[in-house]
Design brief:
This protein is an alpha/beta fold. The protein has one domain. It is about 35% helix and about 15% strand. The strands form three sheets. Strands 1-2-7 form a three-stranded parallel β-sheet, with no helix packed on it. A two-stranded antiparallel ribbon has the order 3-4. Strands 5-6 form a two-stranded antiparallel sheet. Helix 1 links the parallel strand 1 (about 1-5) and strand 2 (about 20-25). The longest helix has 16 residues, at about 115-130. The radius of gyration is 17 Å and the shape is globular. The two termini are about 20 Å apart.
Length: about 220
C-alpha cells in the first residue's frame, strides 16, 4: 500500500497498515497543507480536538514532503502532550501506554523533519500495539503507480478523520466522553490504544478487513 505520512494516524490509517503486506510512505509529493500529515484529532472534554504541528516550507508551496520541517519556534510538543494527557489520563490503559509517547514530547531533541518525527511515533505505536510491518519511504514520486493500492488521495481530505469512511466500517468501543458526544469515529490511534490496550491490534485488524471489503465492492469501480 502507498500511504501519506501521518501524525499520530487515525484508526483507519492503522487499520490499512494491519492488512497490508508492505507499506510505502510517500515523501516526494508536493506537500498539501491541513491534512493528517501534520495533524491528528483526539477526543477532549469539549469534543473533537485537532492537534496541528506548525511546519516550515523551505521551498514555499512547492516544497516536497520530505523537506517539510516541524517548527522549532513554538512549544507545540509541550502543548500537544498537555492536551493528550488531559484528554486520556482517566482512560483505562493510559497509565500502561503513556510512556510510549511521553519521552518524545518531553525531549529537548528536535526531530526537525516532519516525516522523521511521524515515523518515530508510528514505529513506537506499532511496537506498543504489536503490529509488525515493513514500512519504507518512497524513492521517487510516481503519479499513477501500478500493482499497489494507492491511498494517497483517499487519505488526503482535510476532513478525512470523520468523513471518509462509511458507517459500517467503524466499530464502536467505549470512549471517555461518549456519554457527552456519543462515539467519535476514526480518531487518532492513541484514542483506541488508551481505551482498548492489548485489544487494539485485533480492533484495527477487524476495521482493516471491513475497509478491504468496502474497497472491493463493485460499485466503487466507477
Amino acid at each position: 500500500m502507498l500511504m501519506p505520512t501521518a501524525y499520530l494516524p487515525p484508526v483507519s490509517y492503522m487499520a490499512w497498515l494491519s492488512v497490508a503486506d508492505e507499506i510505502e510512505v510517500e515523501i516526494h509529493e508536493t506537500y498539501p497543507k491541513q491534512t493528517l500529515r501534520n495533524r491528528c484529532t483526539i477526543a477532549s472534554t469539549n469534543g473533537p480536538l485537532n492537534l496541528s504541528i506548525p511546519v516550515e516550507k523551505p521551498l514555499g508551496n512547492h516544497t516536497p514532503t520530505n523537506l517539510i520541517r516541524a517548527s522549532n519556534h513554538t512549544h507545540w510538543k509541550r502543548q500537544h502532550w498537555k492536551s493528550i494527557e488531559s484528554a486520556y489520563r482517566k482512560a483505562a490503559y493510559f497509565i500502561h501506554y503513556n510512556d510510549v509517547l511521553e519521552p518524545y514530547y518531553a525531549s529537548n531533541l528536535n526531530e526537525s523533519l516532519l516525516v522523521e518525527w511521524n515515523m518515530i511515533l508510528l514505529q513506537s505505536l506499532c511496537k506498543a500495539i504489536g503490529l509488525e510491518k515493513k514500512i519504507s519511504y518512497t524513492s521517487t514520486f510516481v503519479k499513477i503507480p501500478e500493482g499497489i493500492i494507492d491511498l494517497r488521495s483517499a487519505l488526503n481530505s482535510k476532513n478525512f478523520e470523520r468523513t471518509q469512511l462509511p458507517e459500517d466500517v467503524n466499530i464502536t468501543y467505549f470512549q471517555s466522553f461518549s456519554e457527552k458526544y456519543g462515539f467519535l469515529p476514526n480518531l487518532s490511534i492513541i484514542d483506541a490504544l488508551f481505551h482498548l490496550g492489548p485489544d487494539t491490534l485485533q480492533y484495527i485488524r477487524n476495521c482493516g478487513i471491513r475497509q478491504l471489503n468496502f474497497l472491493s465492492k463493485p460499485n466503487l469501480s466507477g
